[in-house]
Amino acid sequence: MQGRSIEITESSALLADTLGGGTGGSLSLQATDRIRISGFSADPTFVSRLSTDVAPNATGRGGDLSIATRQLQITDGAQISSGTFGSGNAGSLRVDAADLWIRGGSIAGASGLFTPVETAASGNGGRLSVQVDRLRMTDGAQIAASTFGEGNAGALNITANQIDLEGGSGIFANVEFGAIGNGDRLTVTADRLQITGGSQIATLTAGSGNAGDLTVRASSLELDGATNQFSSGLLTSVEPEASGRGGSLTVVADRLQLTDGAQIATTTFGEGRAGNLIVRAGAIDISGGTTMLPVRWSQVRLRATVTAAISPSRPIDCASSMADRLPAPQPDQAMPEI
Questions:
Q1: Tens digits of per-residue pLDDT, 250-293?
Q2: Strand pairing report for 2-9 and 27-38
């Protein structure tokens, strides 16, 4: 589909789903100005959407979904997905845009981009790629490549000049509760990345598979604040009752700032080991009750060329900061490398 402007609103849908044993058709949207996908009609459980999903009981591979435009808006619960509900593998989802804005949600779920392996599915998830000049996510919006079923999740890669995550929004690559499959890697690359208001970039396992690795690269990386429920952060986690391993978390930045409760952490509350935490930065500023830590020791590496200010009255070097704030290791666990 091509045009200057494309709008899909009020529970409208554009679908190229796989219903049987054959490969599904691909879906491509190109607009020189704008593509807007928004909202719902009288029944809020039916939202506007684009999809190349593999339907329940289908065995064929899903088609690929691609979007190219100057501006893409996904708001008020609208969703773009290339997932699997059956035994066929999902296709890929790719977005190329100058400006991508994802906002809010509905009672049917968050607005966003998704490549899920759904609960009853046994196929594998597809790759999700986003390449934009600016990405804005607000009010609980999501981009996710997760597995809820018996298949492995697909990789998630985001590249942008500027990324702003606000208001509890998130970028996730998870093995959800009850899933029997592994998560894939999540990679975010940006010139400037700002995460605020309890927003998170995370990989976790709550099921029987291993979580994927999380890698974040940015010239300027700012994490700020927390809500009553969530800290703004970069996280990899093994949840209670999970049996898989946590993913490693690697952060590379020229300048890294964590303030007012933000976190960078690898944790485990289940049977699996937490992933390694590696931070390489030219300058690190930590203040206001912020943490950068693993729970249940994994290997930690921290490199920086300047001091990190833990409080206005107590500037100390990065190695001392980590040693002061991290819990002591158990007797059968090695001290982390700092």
A1: 999 999 999 998 999 999 998 889 999 999 999 988 887 665 65
A2: parallel
* Other Cβ atoms within 10 Å of 335 Cβ, number: 12
Whether 337 is covered by a domain: the verdict is no
Residue 71 lies in a domain: yes
CB within 8 Å of 336: residues ≥ 6 apart: 294, 297, 298, 299, 300, 322, 326, 329
3-state secondary structure the chain: CEEEEEEEECCCEEECCECCCCCCCCEEEEEEEEEEEECECCCCCCECEEECCECCCCCCCCCCEEEEEEEEEEECCCEEECCECCCCCCCCEEEEEEEEEEECEECCEECEEECCECCCCCCCCCCEEEEEEEEEEECCCEEECCECCCCCCCCEEEEEEEEEECCCCEEECCECCCCCCCCCCEEEEEEEEEEECCCEEEEEECCCCCCCCEEEEEEEEEEECECCCCECEEEEEECCCCCCCCCCEEEEEEEEEEECCCEEEEEECCCCCCCCEEEEEEEEEEECCCEEEECCCCCEEEECCCCEEEECCEEECHHHHHHHHCCCCCCCCCCCCC
User: What pairing do the DSSP bridges indicate for beta strands 314-316 and 308-311?
Assistant: antiparallel
47 within some domain: yes
Instruction: Report the relative pairing of strands 142-144 and 170-172 from DSSP bridges.
Output: parallel
pLDDT at 81: 96
- Total tally of structural domains belonging to the chain: 1
Nearest C-alpha neighbor of 191 from the set 255, 257, 272, 236: 255
Centre a 10 Å sphere on the Cβ of residue 184 and count the other Cβ atoms it contains. 28
Whether 206 maps to a domain, the answer reads: yes
Domain that holds residue 216: 2-325
For 285-334, write each residue's pLDDT tens digit.
888 766 565 554 445 555 554 334 443 333 323 333 333 333 333 434 44
The two beta strands, 249-259 and 109-110, are unpaired
Residue with tokens 């935490």: 277
